[in-house]
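fyi for ur records
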Amino acid sequence: MSDPLPIDALVPEVLAALRAGRDLVIQAEPGAGKTTRLPLVMREGGWAERGEIWVSQPRRIAARMAATRVASLLGESVGGTVGYQVRFDAKTSEATRIRFVTEGILARRLVDDPQLKGVAAVVFDEFHERHLDADLALALVRALQRGTRPDLRVAVMSATLQPGPIAQWLGAVPLFCEGRAYPVTIAYATDKSDRPLGAQVAAALRELGRERLDGGSALVFLPGAREIRECQQSCASVADALGLEVVVLHGELPADEQDRAVRPGARAKLVLATNVAETSITIAGVSCVIDSGLVRQASHDPWTGLGTLALARTSKASAEQRAGRAGRTREGHCVRLYARADFDRRPAFDTPEIHRMDLAGAALSVRAAGFAGLAAVPWFEPPPEPACKAAEELLLRLGAIDAVTGAPSDRGRALLRYPVHPRLARVLQAGASLGVGHAAAGAAALLSERSIRRGGPERSRRAATTASSDVVVDLDDLRAFERDPGRAGGLGLDHGACRTVLEVWRSLARGSKREQDLDEDALGVALLSGFPDRVAAVRPGAAGARRKLAFAGGGGTAELAEDSAVQSAAFVVALQATARREGASGPQVLVNLAAAIEPEWLLELDIDRLEERRVAGFDAERERVDAVVETRWDGLLLESRREHEPSEATANALFEAARARGASAWIDEPDALAELSARAAFAHGIDPAIPLLDAGAFDQVLREACNGRRSFAELRRADLLGALLGTLGSARDRFERIAPAHVALDGQRRVRVHYEPDQPPWIESRLQDFFGSVAGPRVAEGRVAVAIRLLAPNHRPVQITTDLAGFWDRHYAEIRKALMRRYPRHDWPEDPRTARPPAPRGRR
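which gave:
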């Protein structure tokens, strides 16, 4: 073993807790030695005899280097007692008792082997980073402890984690250990600089100078590989003047280059690193740190759910970790390239990934592990409900879980075999079945990693190409890079990104043969299979503007990037997009990667989403309906053709337009409809079995008349009044008896009966027409006397009565005198009861 470390003071407490069957939460400051010592302490305490001790690390480089260091403490090479297992690389053997793994490897093992056979203890190192895989693995381990593996021990370690909440949740023993650190002087930028980041780093390095470096190395924290390359150029002359060897350190580097950056050399170094150097890795001889205050933080594209790296400001905890790297072996200096006020405004800790990452992969994993969903898992912090719901909905669209039980389908269990997001796993699965497994692996690699293109003018190269998909163009360029990396500049490619994507491609394509003649349609179908909810129709934009995308399923709209190779496609599946804001237009979505698709592929994908819809619209100028038959998939218009025969949609459109004109527009005698309605109302009051002929009844007749017709001209030829009467059916005869349209007078004259709402029926005729009558007409089969309007020869009423006999007795004589004076030529008998009425001269 090496020299004593602060963590050694905790060994008795650690062993006592383990022997008592207790879990551990250890907060150990930087330099305490927790990563290298605790696994060995557990081994010496006998835990390695019960099974392997698994130590999870947040990054591949940390797992590999920690394993190498611990193995060296035993005087062994890595792969013996101490090994590691990370994505694309592993060094273990049957003798391995301590296994350093990434959090993703641990989570996958728990899904594949829910009992975690052969593992005695699990150590979660640097848990404060709160990666989703770490939270998932810890939750599954906790469930296992509560169930069939109470013997399984857990240790959670971190330099900055607040131990109280996690210790209480685990029921663990919280322990604290001071580190081995020296004072670090912090300097801040006095104001915000608009200079490029590389220029700021060079200026800070120049200001530190030889005196503050004092023979030590400088460690620069940068957000990503692109910024590292910029700083290499900006800092070259300053580093040379200070006698520093420039080295880089990030996760995309080959292992030997990573080792070169970490191990001591003959000269002091300028180490340009990402946040991989923040924890777990010790770089010897660092006396100064320059902190950009930026990080590319794992997030996800809310539009596709795929992982992304978004530029973000570091938390206070992260800033302290970075500064502490300057005080590991002596007093040091840290220059923060941002103001103190900026630091004060930063959050204490980063938001855990479980609150900002897509959960589809986790949702499928927990269901495969036997849980009823994400909500059924004993999380340290439960994920947000909307994200859980979105994850389940995506799994349903992918066919990964049963719609009724929620259990993983055969397809879903197959998807778990692929170490990628379920969308990309579905692309791989479909590609393999369609004979394009190798190309599908390349597509999945492209979509899972950062862009292979540097950005800038070179991106327009794709726009000069017409292809079935942007993925095909990028795959061609990747192959060109693989053959001749020197061509990368001309193709606008990022060397580091290309190397990473090729490495992932090779890993995902194991067992598949490279296609000699790629079936681009088959690759398109495979891509569609992984993104079934991202189908869009392409529409032309305004002159000089980007083409517009209208998405199926009410998914809104987006724009297609100018450099996309699928500008001429009618339909696409969008594979990658970014959100942006342009002026007052609000947030917009720009699709960067897309693939052309054919409508018939959608039918094979999910025919249940196909529907045929008839759409009709009324042309007011031509007074007719134009109708088309639309074929839609998930609401997206695939085809539209003119309808030859009138349909229900045609009738509906004609009816709505006709009703808007009003009922009187369709009756030759506008008052006749109101009269008929009043007759029916009267008859209904006498006999409720007789239906009303109101506005609703007319609408029904009008609606039926629209069937089989397209225009107002056709509708005007219909006898709507007759049709309305026809709705009475078998009650028609009784209706006519109760509410006749005309009645006969004793002189054989027929007069019209008037019906009005809330009024008794009435008739009108000349007074002489009633000579010889002792009673007026009655309706309602004799039950209701009609009101009689008795008219003078000038057709003006002289009396209104329902009692004709009473009129003759009480009023006629007086009225007769007046009428004789005004109309002396007319016959006005003294006894109207016995007089004969004049002969009929026609109906009134």
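The longest helix spans residues 197-213. thats all i got for now
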